[in-house]
Automatic annotation (TrEMBL):
Membrane topology: Multi-pass membrane protein
First-listed, main subcellular location of the protein, grouped into a coarse class: membrane
Annotated TM spans: 82-100, 152-174, 181-202, 214-232
Reaction equation(s) it catalyzes: Fe(2+)(in) = Fe(2+)(out)
Keyword tags: Ion transport, Iron, Iron transport, Membrane, Transmembrane, Transmembrane helix, Transport, Vacuole
Name of the protein in question: Vacuolar iron transporter
Gene Ontology MF: a single term: iron ion sequestering activity
GO process annotations (BP): intracellular manganese ion homeostasis
Pfam families listed in its UniProt record: VIT1
Function: Vacuolar Fe(2+) uptake transporter.
Family classification: Belongs to the CCC1 family.
One cellular component (GO) term of this entry: vacuolar membrane
Organism whose genome encodes this protein: Acer yangbiense
Taxonomic lineage from the root: Eukaryota, Viridiplantae, Streptophyta, Embryophyta, Tracheophyta
Length: 239
């Protein structure tokens, strides 16, 4: 039997195909044949996780933060203008905060991973003592796997804005105060379910558990904000 021949083909940064063929000699029939090719497909979720994490967290934060803020203002003010102004202020401030925070956080993570790669390469050169050194192409591939601070910041800010627009649009055309509050809760709950299911499907996590955590967390945030502001107002603080 001849030695197996193995071919490694990198079709993309996240899709790996390994194909192995075996040439078998039959001494009795003086013939040879090739065994069926084995193909292994493996998807790497590392690159997807970089933007998925920022997008899902940003959308949920925008939705829950602005909806809770509007519920808090609605607990003491019936004016629709006050609710919408508070919501828009929360949208702008939150999107900027998320973008800056995500940029700083991911940049720090990138610096740590880059420093680790440099130390690892240095140790390999010392151990090999003149042997094979990593070429420029291999170093570029490793750098491309590092998280992108700009990508994470943009994804987080855009996702926060999209999530924040849901309760704003839901309450923008409702004049009745109580109906407006109910609409904010309903549209926020529907959006939380959508974000929870979407994040679970893309991240390959349990859909029911992930969605339940997102939904219950959003309800708690809105209820606590509404109740706390209502308590402060009932204590005699003029607003």
């Amino acid at each position: 039997m001849a030695a197996p021949k193995t071919y490694l083909e990198q079709t993309s940064s996240s899709n790996l195909e390994i194909m192995s063929s075996f040439q078998v000699n039959d001494p009795e029939k003086n013939t040879c044949h090739v065994e069926p090719t084995v193909v292994i497909n493996e998807f790497d979720y590392t690159q997807r996780a970089q933007w998925l994490r920022a997008a899902v967290l940003g959308a949920n934060d925008g939705l829950v933060s602005v909806a809770s803020l509007m519920m808090g203002i609605g607990a003491v003010k019936q004016d629709i203008k006050a609710m919408l102004l508070a919501g828009f202020a929360g949208l702008v401030a939150g999107a900027c905060s998320m973008a800056i925070g995500e940029f700083v956080s991911v940049y720090t993570q990138r610096d740590v991973e880059l420093a680790h790669q440099k130390r690892d390469h240095h140790q390999k050169r010392i151990s090999q003592r003149g042997g094979h050194n990593m070429n420029e192409e291999e170093e570029v591939i490793e750098r491309e796997t590092l998280p992108s601070p700009v990508q994470a910041a943009v994804a987080s800010a855009l996702a926060f804005s999209v999530g924040a627009m849901v309760p704003l649009l839901g309450a923008a055309f409702i004049t009745n105060h109580k109906v407006r509050l109910a609409v904010v809760v309903v549209v926020a709950s529907m959006a939380l379910v959508v974000f929870g299911v979407g994040g679970a499907v893309l991240g390959r996590t349990p859909v029911v558990k992930s969605t339940a955590r997102v939904l219950v967390g959003g309800w708690m945030a809105m209820a606590i904000t509404f109740g706390f502001i209502k308590l402060i107002d009932s204590g005699g603080l003029e607003m």
